[in-house]
């Protein structure tokens, strides 16, 4: 498509609410498209919501049992014959491994050719990147993501997240939170540089807006320390001081901090509370334990000490909050480590970004119909390592 650079320029120059209009015009001009639709995954990762007409004005599509859902899950394009003479081309919209949604283009069958698919996918990728930029200036895409109203605490927590997944040659990771529309204090954060990946999982005490405020303070204190070049032990100490200065020990927060050396797989860790980690290595699931240290903000100027361990290519790490492993069944039995180990083994063939949702789905079946009594957070990381790339 000779017009790809022109489309990219048009997307960069367009107002945030006109991005889909630019893509629609390009598809009509190049391929005679009769329809273009963008659907974005909702916060609960259960449906695909139409962007063009706003939330719920167009029927949501399930992530299961729909062509678009199949594309979203497999991350592969799909061409489906529609009415006589028409085909629909469904393509994933994904940015650096973070699955956003699906772009669908309906066009005359005689206009479609396989060589056009990479060109159309390129436009879809450019659209995804521009959506990330546009979200600074419009609510359009965030409104489209919701099937119902978020609580204020949930709004704050989702805005705090770096994304739901990230993929680089050395690793792939994904995370998810439940209840998606009413999350309280659990959160995760990550940052990758040329040489390091820092992964943080937090579990704040309390519920509602107070838990969300506590998590916001802690995560931003940790980011501030990380961006100042401090190691994970000093990051924990700085965040601990910030929380204690604000709450004087009345409110505190559990955290697991992990810093990965991307070249060697050496990991520096600080375990300050309740998030727990399991490892799947060569088919064997085992709990990874650390020296327990005090949660952040419990006492003034608590010293924190880092520990080290090693990850190998092929390792999968699963981190959960207590809202997962302590969740009771209808009979009162906690989900526990055995169930988590079984779940980790059962999802071993899924990509990292799909594992958290699968584990939380199993948790829903385990607890029955009752609502979650606490936030439930799952983060999964697959380690490939640089050695595997040689």
UniProtKB/TrEMBL annotation:
Task: Provide the PPM-type phosphatase domain boundaries.
Answer: 168-383
What one GO molecular function would you report for this record?
Answer: protein serine/threonine phosphatase activity
Q: Which UniProt keywords apply?
A: Hydrolase
InterPro entries assigned: Bact_Sigma-Reg, PPM-type-like_dom_sf, PPM-type_phosphatase-like_dom
Q: Which SUPFAM superfamilies match?
A: PP2C-like
Going by the record, the broad EC class of this enzyme is hydrolase
Q: What is its EC number?
A: 3.1.3.16
Gene3D superfamilies named among the record's database cross-references? PPM-type phosphatase domain
Q: Does the keyword ATP-binding apply?
A: no
Could you identify this protein by its name? PP2C family protein-serine/threonine phosphatase
Q: Which organism is it from?
A: Streptomyces hazeniae
């Amino acid at each position: 498509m000779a017009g790809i650079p022109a489309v990219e320029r048009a997307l960069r120059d367009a107002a945030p609410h006109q991005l889909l209009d630019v893509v629609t015009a390009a598809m009509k001009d190049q391929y005679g498209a009769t329809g273009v639709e963008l659907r974005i995954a909702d916060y609960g990762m259960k449906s695909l919501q139409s962007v063009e007409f706003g939330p719920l004005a167009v029927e949501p599509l399930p992530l299961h049992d729909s062509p678009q859902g199949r594309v979203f899950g497999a991350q592969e394009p799909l061409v489906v014959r529609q009415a006589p003479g028409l085909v629909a081309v469904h393509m994933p919209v994904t940015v650096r491994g973070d699955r956003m949604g699906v772009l669908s283009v309906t066009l005359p069958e005689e206009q479609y050719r396989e060589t056009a698919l990479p060109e159309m996918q390129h436009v879809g990728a450019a659209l995804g990147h521009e959506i990330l930029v546009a979200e600074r200036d419009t609510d359009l895409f965030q409104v489209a993501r919701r099937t119902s109203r978020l609580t204020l605490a949930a709004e704050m927590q989702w805005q705090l997240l770096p994304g739901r997944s990230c993929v680089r040659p050395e690793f792939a990771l994904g995370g998810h939170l439940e209840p998606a529309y009413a999350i309280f204090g659990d959160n995760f954060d990550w940052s990758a540089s040329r040489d390091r990946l820092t992964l943080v999982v937090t579990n704040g005490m309390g519920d509602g807006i107070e838990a969300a405020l506590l998590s916001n303070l802690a995560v931003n204190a940790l980011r501030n320390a990380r961006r100042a070049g401090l190691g994970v032990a000093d990051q924990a100490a700085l965040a601990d001081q910030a929380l204690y200065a604000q709450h004087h020990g009345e409110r505190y927060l559990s955290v697991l901090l992990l810093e990965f050396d991307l070249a060697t797989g050496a990991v520096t860790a600080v375990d300050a509370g309740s998030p727990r980690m399991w490892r799947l290595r060569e088919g064997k699931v085992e709990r990874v334990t650390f020296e327990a240290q005090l949660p952040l903000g419990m006492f003034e100027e608590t010293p924190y000490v880092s520990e080290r361990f090693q990850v190998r290519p092929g390792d999968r790490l699963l981190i959960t909050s207590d809202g997962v492993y302590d969740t009771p069944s209808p009979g009162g039995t906690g989900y526990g480590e055995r169930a988590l180990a079984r779940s980790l083994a059962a999802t071993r063939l899924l990509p990292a970004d799909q594992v958290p949702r699968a584990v939380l789905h199993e948790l829903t079946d385990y607890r029955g119909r009752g609502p979650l009594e606490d936030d439930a957070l799952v983060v999964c990381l697959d380690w490939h390592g640089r050695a595997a790339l040689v």
